[in-house]
Amino acid sequence: MFVSGSHRRRIATRADASIMHADLDSFYASVEQRDNPGLRGRPVAVGGGVVLAASYEAKACGVRTPMPGRKAQALCPDLIFVRPRMSAYSDASAAVFEIFRDTTPWVEGISVDEAFLDVRGLSRLVGPPAQIATTLRQRVAREVGLPISVGIARSKFLAKVASAVSKPDGLLEVPPDRELRFLHPLPVERLWGVGAVTAGKLHDGGITHVGQLARLPERQLATLVGPGTARHLHALAWAQDPRRVETGRRRKSIGAQRAIGWGPNRDGIHPEGTAEESLLLLVDRVTGRMRAAGRVGRTVTLRLRFTDFGRATRSATMARPTADTATIGDTALDLLSSVRPLIAERGVTLVGVAVSNFPGSGGDQPELPFGDEPDRHALDAAMDQVRDRFGGKSLTRGVHLGRDPGLHVPLLPD
Fold this sequence. Notes:
Blueprint: E1 19-24, H1 27-35, E2 44-47, E3 51-54, H2 56-59, H3 69-75, E4 80-82, H4 86-103, E5 107-111, E6 114-118, H5 129-144, E7 148-153, H6 156-166, E8 171-173, H7 179-183, H8 196-204, H9 210-215, H10 218-225, H11 227-237, E9 253-259, H12 274-293, E10 297-306, E11 311-322, H13 325-338, H14 340-346, E12 348-356, H15 376-390
Parallel strand pairs: 2-4, 7-8
Antiparallel strand pairs: 1-6, 1-7, 2-3, 5-6, 9-12, 10-11, 10-12
Helix pairs in contact: 4-5, 10-11, 12-13
């Protein structure tokens, strides 16, 4: 299929619409409403000093992420703030992804709450893509108790746009012969890569909708946003996106982050040790995921967000790749110590840690303990086994006891 005119573009890259983009609606907030019936139908924000997620009832009042909590409360006086429960979100994500993988073997996870699924070749066995998507949405609602929106198209870009347009809790299929009719009336903000800055440049040039951008010569568009961005946006405006769903791609890093709020005085200044405790909890989680995936890494990266919404990133590369909790924890604490003056001056509201620089293939032999050194690898392995058998909250390190309000330590069964 071709579009005639001076900007002729080939827009058919697949024979049919068989790529699905599945996206959980207001994920964190939906989990809280699922687990607490008293929150259903009410405006809910996950977070405190900063809004991490907002229910659709809150979004209707103008609450967005990452909005300061005071501004959100001013916009929505009835807003209910809920502390984040990362373990609950992780469990819900895992359950949803099991349904994804039970639907098709071709699943590409994008984040904890969204994924691309390729359902080509399943029509004869299961039914057309719309029927597959309907069944998937019913299973997520029935088995996990969460709303999910699904877009279907023949490209990843269009499928993602379709899922966004279908929200909340919707399903939208874009047939191949209606792609441009669907895409061109949409605002330019729907295009991948158009954030606030790029949107402002386009608006200043009189371009507010995708169709206007598509009809603008690429050379003229480049004067507004630069040649690279112009080429990218022009292709998307003509529904060109040849990328396929990738299932074998290995992650380049494994990380986690945690909001710690604005402190008791709402100035980002927390009791001594709060940032360290949060960081060590994250390291414990990340290294456990690394060992489960058979990964070892050399580079540890610390990320902080301050009360003024500024950010800081620090990283260090270790001598040898490892998934050892204590070794990575020590490195992360050293990085945190290097930014203590910034924390004291600006306050901190979010802590994150990631491990990267994985070996290219096969992994490395872990370091062996020498002399009277404790066998850290044996300790990590033992903890992993207990958690696999009795659940992630069944065992924790002593440094976390009594310090993490979201951590519950149940007794082990006899």
